[in-house]
From TrEMBL:
<feature type="repeat" description="ANK">
    <location>
        <begin position="125"/>
        <end position="157"/>
    </location>
</feature>
<keyword id="KW-0677">Repeat</keyword>
<feature type="repeat" description="ANK">
    <location>
        <begin position="91"/>
        <end position="115"/>
    </location>
</feature>
<feature type="repeat" description="ANK">
    <location>
        <begin position="58"/>
        <end position="90"/>
    </location>
</feature>
<feature type="repeat" description="ANK">
    <location>
        <begin position="158"/>
        <end position="190"/>
    </location>
</feature>
<protein>
    <submittedName>
        <fullName>Ankycorbin-like</fullName>
    </submittedName>
</protein>
<dbReference type="InterPro" id="IPR002110">
    <property type="entry name" value="Ankyrin_rpt"/>
</dbReference>
<keyword id="KW-0040">ANK repeat</keyword>
<dbReference type="InterPro" id="IPR036770">
    <property type="entry name" value="Ankyrin_rpt-contain_sf"/>
</dbReference>
<dbReference type="Pfam" id="PF12796">
    <property type="entry name" value="Ank_2"/>
</dbReference>
Length: 264
């Protein structure tokens, strides 16, 4: 069973500014409507840019918090007032990272429409907003980011692409779309593990559908020969559930075997 990943907003923080703007965000969150109070407050501020770009103790801006709390109206007002869309928190995540991971489609659309947002900004782990969207299998956001120009071939500090991240986390729908969109199916990470390896060893995938799509998309079986020829596989290997497919893969590298065995 795929593990649960919490994406709910955490509202406890200390802003180095008056609490009125945060109170307004929370009020709008409850009422789901734009707040003219914020517009007036911003319009009359002499230090408007410095004010709205202030960060809390964790490096989060008001725009970041609006993205986390799914407040598109507030995000629009902040951006219109000149808020920096690329301010990152202490983990290197921008508002786009946060909205993409949380599945807040409308906020993602607003950030992209702003035109100043770095669509492939990397956090401290080298992850792009696309990778964070894939992590939680937010398929609609994955599609939106790719159509908006996000580079699906980017890799993080471990050499993992968005496709590898998705396979590892069991994000089947997003992975199928990434394969269709042209993600590199022959990539290996820094540990030498291939895309196909991830597809059959994920603890959170339950079928070989993605693996089969990889083969159709041109995955080089010969580059996976060493681990495919291993007669024993760990208990998470999906090939144990489909010996016919395993035999098909082996046949492509000139080996005949009836069925894979579980590692003991």
């Amino acid at each position: 069973m795929k593990r649960s990943k919490s994406t709910s907003p955490r509202n406890s923080f200390t802003m180095r500014r008056s609490s009125s703007t945060w109170s307004m965000i929370m009020s709008a969150k409850k009422k789901r409507k734009a707040s003219p109070v914020l517009t007036r407050q911003m319009s009359h501020s002499e230090n408007i840019l410095a004010d709205i770009n202030k960060l809390d103790s964790k490096g989060r801006s008001l725009l970041f918090l609006a993205a986390r709390c799914d407040q598109p109206e507030v995000a629009i007002q902040l951006l219109d007032a000149g808020c920096n869309a690329n301010l990152a928190n202490s983990e290197g995540n921008t508002p786009l990272h946060e909205a993409a991971e949380c599945g807040h489609l409308e906020v993602v659309q607003i950030l992209l429409q702003n035109g100043q947002c770095d669509i492939d900004a990397k956090n401290l782990l080298g992850q792009t907003p696309l990778m964070r969207a894939v992590y939680n299998d937010n398929q609609e956001i994955v599609k939106l980011l790719i159509k908006a120009g996000s580079d699906i071939q980017h890799v993080d500090q471990l050499g993992k692409s968005a496709l590898m991240v998705g396979l590892q986390e069991g994000a089947e729908k997003s992975c199928l779309y990434l394969v269709k969109a042209g993600s590199d199916v022959n990539l290996t990470d820094r540990e030498g593990q291939s895309v196909l390896f991830y597809a059959v060893h994920s603890s959170y995938l339950h079928t070989l559908e993605v693996a089969k799509k990889l083969i159709k998309a041109g995955c080089d079986i010969l580059k996976n020969a060493s681990w495919l020829m291993d007669s024993k596989h760990d208990e998470n290997c999906l090939l144990l559930d489909d010996p016919k497919f395993h035999s098909l893969l082996l046949s492509k590298i000139g080996i005949k075997e009836s069925s894979p065995r579980k590692m003991t």
